[in-house]
Amino acid sequence: MKRRDFLRSSTLASGAFLIPAFLKPFETMAMSAVSGYKNLVIIQLSGGNDGLNTVVPFGDDIYYQKRKTVAITPNEVIKLNDIQGLNPNLSALKEIYDQGWMNIINSVGYPNPDRSHFRSMDIWQTASNSNEFLSTGWIGRYLDSNCQTCQNPYTAIEVDDTLSLAMKGSKMKGIAVQDPNKLYQTTREPFFKDLMHGPDNNHLHEDNLGYLYKTMIETYSSADYIQKTSKTYNVVAPYPATGFGNQLKNVSKFINSGLNTRIYYVSLGGFDTHVGQQNQQGRQLKTYADAVAAFVKDLKQTGKLDDTLIMTFSEFGRRVEQNASNGTDHGTANNVLLFGGKLGKAGIYNNAPDLANLENGDLKYQIDFRDIYATLLKKWLNVNDGSILNAQFTGLDFV
């Protein structure tokens, strides 16, 4: 089969072969150069993490009235003040909190919340209204808006095998890189190289084939750049031997090698805790906390923590009252956790969730998540947040 026929039959028909676009690195870029700008790391907790059992309102009696068997007892809570404290499985984060490198924002959500995992995650990833359906993500639109005029390749990497909607713009996309060596080897397969350098490449510029060919060229070039740059640095700090720990270890490698990337995106699943919540959530929270603590300490040691901001979110929280299966069902507002060496406001950002003032048994949101995005875009990435979010948001003062 000719390359042209292969592309027509398999790629455009099914979309299975499409590789996310990535900014083509400049050939003159010095591989050993340090980035010299701020990094943003997004951590997605998939499944709807229970925020009330993550940052525990142990000082509120209603919490224990509503959660007879799944509540974290006061003697287990890692107390941060007289009202709230951390789940004991987050013990690794206490030192980070005490150093002033952690910020907790309570009651984050959006108007007219949706309790579907898929729809609510789309809303968070696209920064849309709950009745609005967008095909581009907020990070993808950031890439679109900046790469029209920028002189340097502002890029985004998702440390995974697939690309989230958050990373997809209309013109630019991030790239999914779980293993830079694997990506490099894939793009050096004979069939891939033939597509890049074959004699009939001119046929690939027809219609959508031109876009595909450009995407493959950019991916081919990017794989080479990522692999060559990242291998110049070896992470020496200890990380937990978990998949999530390895994701953050890779991000450390990328940042410390001077990879010219602004945004990194990682995910940890397993938070849909309808049944037997305490053990299941506890395991996932420990996996999360141990890896994040290692990552923050690593960046501090290498001098990169001041230039890095880490944000953790989940698509929604859980209902205030537990269910009959020692779990919790899909809810609404949740907490967002931030980490960094230059937080403008460390500690607990706002008041604890109001458990006495619920809406159909759910928390009422106090802070729109897009105010957090607006802050990240405007104050951290130094871009026009309104044009990316398609609306104006006040923003916050955590940086």
From TrEMBL:
Superkingdom: Bacteria
Pfam family, one: DUF1501
Protein name: DUF1501 domain-containing protein
Native source organism of the sequence: Mucilaginibacter aquatilis
Organism placement in taxonomy: Bacteria, Pseudomonadati, Bacteroidota, Sphingobacteriia, Sphingobacteriales
